[in-house]
Amino acid sequence: MTESRWFIEHFDSAGTAFGLRLTKKLEQVQTAYQHIEMWETDTFGYLMTIDGCTMVTSRDNFLYHEMMSHPALFAHADPKRVVIIGGGDCGTLREVLRHPGVEKATQIDIDEMVTRMSEKYFPELCESNNDPRAELLFIDGVKWMQECEAGSVDIIIVDSTDPVGPAEGLFKADFFRDCHRVLRDGGIIVQQSESPLLHADTIIKDLHANMREAGFTSTQTLPFPQPVYPSGWWSCTMAGKGCDVGSFRRDASAGKTFETQYYTAGIHEGALQLPPFMKKALG
Ligand code: SAM
Fold first, then answer.
1. How many domains does the chain have?
2. Residue 165's pLDDT band (boundaries 50, 70, 90)?
3. What's the gap in Å between 167 CA and the centre of ligand 1?
4. In a domain, 279, yes or no
C-alpha cells in the first residue's frame, strides 16, 4: 500500500508494517499471474513488489539469495544438477552458478515478466543468465516437477512467493512427493519458509511435516536476517533424501572460491543452532 512518498506493506495478521521511502514509481504490469510493480527507493535502491508484497530490493537481496543457495549446496556431498522453482529475479541462479562443480542450473518461474523486469532494474542479479550452464524456463513449477524424470536432480531450491495464488501448490505435500521422486539419493530440497518469529508454529511446522510425509529423512530450518520481509527475520527450510541437512562440508565452505556478502561457514554453523522457542514450536 502506498502512502504519500512511502511504500508501506501492512502485515495485518501480525499487526505490523514495513515501509521504504520512495523516490519514484518506475513501472507496473499486470500479468496473467500477478501484479508486478517497480519502485525507486531513497535508501534501498530499486524495489520489486508482486501483488503489493516486497520481493527484492537492490540493497538487501544478498541475504536471501545467499542463504537460499549456499547452505544447501554445501550440505550436499557433490551437487551437479540444480533446479530453482520460482526465483525469477535470477539472484538465486547467480549464487548457485558461483559453485564451480555445478554442471547445470535450471530456473523455472511461472512468470517471464519477473525476469524481464529484473534484467532491466537488477542487472547485477542477472549477470549469470548467459552462463552456458544456465537454463531459464517460464512454466508452472508444480507441473514441471510432475513431469520431470525420477532421480535426475541433486538440489531443488523453491524460491517462491508466499503460499497464496500461483505459489500455493509449492508448499503442499503432493509437490514435495514429486520433488522427492525427482531427487537422486542424497538430494536436498530447500524452500523459503517465511518468518521464524511469526510462522514457526504454523507455516514452518507444516512445512517440516509435509516434507517428512513426502519421504524426506531430515529437515532443518535456518533463520537469517531480512529487513524488508515481515518481522525483519526470515528463514529457509531444507530437507534431505537420505542425507543429513543438519551438517555440511565445512572445509569446502570455509575454503570457498567465491566471495559472499553474508554467507560464511561460521554463519552456516550458527544458523543450524535453533533458538529454544523454535525448537519448541517445531516439536
Ligand atoms: N524472495 C521472494 C520472496 O520471498 O518474497 C521471492 C522472489 S521470486 C521473485 C518469487 C517468484 O515465484 C515469482 O517470480 C513468481 O512468479 C514465482 N512463482 C510463484 N508461483 C510459481 C509457480 N507455481 N511456479 C513457478 N514460479 C512461481
1. 2
2. confident
3. 7
4. no
In a shared domain, residues 93 and 204: yes
Residue 200 has pLDDT above 90, yes or no: yes
For residue 141, which atom of ligand 1 is closest to its CA?
24
**Which pLDDT tens digit goes with each residue over 2-59?**
446 999 999 999 999 999 999 999 999 999 999 999 999 999 999 999 999 999 999 9
Q: Which of these three, 57, 78, 102, is where a domain ends?
A: 57
In the block, residue with C-alpha cell 536471501:
64
Nearest-CA neighbor of 109 among 130, 96, 91?
91
Ligand 1, atom 4: nearest CA belongs to which residue?
161
The answer to whether residues 148 and 162 belong to one domain is: yes
Task: Report if residue 43 sits inside a domain.
Answer: yes
**Residue 23 shares a structural domain with residue 144:** no
User: What's the distance, Cα to Cα, between the start and end of the chain in Å?
Assistant: 36
Ligand 1 mean position to 251 CA, how many Å? Answer: 32
pLDDT score for 4:
65
Q: Residue of the nearest CA to atom 17 in ligand 1?
A: 86
Query: Is-above-0.90 flag for pTM?
Result: yes
Indicate whether 51 and 163 sit together in one domain: no
- What amino acid positions are annotated as catalytic residues? 159
Cβ count within 10 A of residue 70: 25
| Structural domain for 259, as ranges | 61-271
| Distance, CA of 203 to CA of 17 (rounded, Å) | 20
Q: Which grid coordinates belong to 121?
A: 532494474
